[in-house]
Amino acid sequence: MARLFESYNWQSVLLEECERLGGVYIKFIQMLAVHETTKHLVEGARADLVYEHVPFEAIDVNQELGRSVQEFAWIDYQPFAGGSYGQVYRGQLRTGQDVVVKILRPSVRKTLRQDLRILNSIARITSWFTRRAIVDPLAIAQEFSRTTIAETNYRREVQNAEWQRSFFERRNTLVIPRSYVQLSSDHILVQDYVGGISLAEAMLRQSNGEQIDRIVFDATGSNVWSQLEELGEEFLDSMLYADYNMADPHPGNIRLLPNDKVALIDFGMVSRAPSNKAAVVNVMGEYVKIYEDRFDAGSFATSMLAFFDVELHDALQIVAREFADNYIGSLEGFIDNYFKNLTNDGQIKHYLTERRVSRLFDQVINSGNKLGIRISKENVMQQRSMSMFASMIRAIGEAHDGQVNFALMHGITSRVYRQALRDGVDQPRQPEMTDERAFEVAANWLTTIAENDRHMYGFITKGGFA
After folding, report:
1. Are 418 and 314 in contact (CB under 8 A)?
2. Count of domains for the chain
3. How many CA within 13 A on the CB side of residue 147?
4. pTM of the predicted structure, to 2 decimals
5. Which domain-ending residue is among 272, 291, 316?
6. Of 207, 239, 272, which residue is a domain's last?
7. Average pLDDT of each block of 10 consecutive residues along the chain (466 residues)?
8. Same domain, yes or no, for 15 and 100?
9. In this predicted structure, what is the pLDDT of residue 351?
10. Within this chain, do residues 340 and 237 fall inside the same structural domain, yes or no?
């Protein structure tokens, strides 16, 4: 039945329905489009749909603010920015402080929860038929629903923003605008206005032929490459040292300021820091190897498994311990042997030369999900935000100089990686799982391996390599 479903063009049907329904469904398509492991699902979406500009709604700002409107010296009632969920207005408090007022669209308040219930029902059905895929549609939909509910609760966003502001203020790095708790509510957010130029605007002008370093210098006097380096290092550092991370680092939420400073805005979407920080450090180390032409297929594959599928990694560690075995070494050995037979493949050489790390993993090492990985729910948004950031740097570099993004990403990743090693963040944690659960997870994994790749299944069950 599952194979019959896979032969049916269900992606097109699902995409058409999301396009027809609009609203939160469009937002879901946009999320899939920037997720490295799911972007293939929305390849048929219209470009104008995936990057749709949502028209402004008519909103009575004074009525929404209520008595709080007395705290404002003036408000521009014409929104200057907006998205799928909210609209943003300029204003000034009676204290003289320039602020922005973000108001949740009334249409979103009316239909959001019902839309999310429908979306999860669709994903639940789809999940049953895609059990062999690396991503679970239901897990993505559930995580999307959780973050969407949080993103449309502006009191929660105030809390998220203040967490981030506290973290980055201690480090004296990124600028996070102050939130005004007393003027904010579930559907209204008031924050300090952040000037400078948005990275989205700079990238748009770059795509029209202007040099991005000149654009940013003329607007702010800053060095955009220094700003991107700091942004990247702080983004990776927050995964290792902060409790929560910004999960929506797209260019529209990044402001480039004078004095080489960078500001982040919009904290509606945040994710918990990864529970397995050692796995994050190891993945960074593998990226460094690739940028230094020291690619190791085996260690790369096992590091990605540990990061993506926390439960499976923990289970295999426990099972291997029971049999006094080393599953990491065994899996690395198999992948190394498998990869040696493919080293002359032109596609692989292209991915390595272009540092297309995610594609190398998805389309070569783990093609057909032969490793039986299922991305953990906790890492869905982490993977999304990492893909967004890497894609952004790549787009900037390729538009400026095809090699710039390599130097940037290598420098950013290697500095954070080496500091993490000095801090001992790479020390493995003890798996928190019962032996019974570990054997259950391992048995289910072997079943998936048998379905996905009989050759790998034979090696694993025999405990040896060719």
Report:
1. no
2. 3
3. 30
4. 0.82
5. 272
6. 272
7. 46 66 71 62 50 74 94 95 86 97 90 86 75 70 82 91 92 94 95 94 91 96 96 93 85 93 89 86 93 88 86 86 70 73 69 78 75 73 79 84 79 95 89 90 86 75 53
8. no
9. 80
10. no
Give the residue among 80, 160, 163, 149 at the shortest CA–CA distance from 112: 149
Strand stretches in 36-82, DSSP E: 72-75, 81-82
Among 115, 117, 74, residue whose Cα is nearest residue 95: 74
The two structure tokens encoding residue 42: 């929305």
- The CATH number of the domain holding residue 85 is 1.10.510.10
Angle at 107 between CA 102 and CA 113, to 5 degrees: 100
Same domain, 116 and 207: no
> What per-residue confidence (pLDDT) applies to 417?
96
Could you say which DSSP state residue 56 is in? P
* 165-198: burial string, b at 16+ Cβ within 10 Å, e else: bebbeeeeebbbbebbeebbbebbbbbbebebbb
d(CA 140, CA 381): 8
Distance CA 466, CA 334 (A): 8
Please give the residue range of the domain that contains residue 345. 277-462
Query: 309 and 393 in one domain?
Result: yes
Give the span between the Cα atoms of 81 and 179, in whole angstroms. 18
End-to-end CA distance of the chain: 34
DSSP for 82-124 reads: E-SSEEEEEEEETTS-EEEEEEE-HHHHHHHHHHHHHHHHHHH
Same domain, 100 and 122: no
- pLDDT in the model for residue 41: 58
Query: Which run of H or E residues covers position 338?
Result: helix 327-340
pLDDT at 131: 63
Say yes or no: 134 and 49 in one domain: yes
- Structure confidence at residue 38 (pLDDT): 62
Please tell me whether residues 194 and 178 are part of one structural domain: yes
H helices of 343-434, in order, are: 346-353, 357-360, 377-400, 404-423
Note the pLDDT of residue 466.
38
| Residue 37 and residue 125 in one domain | yes
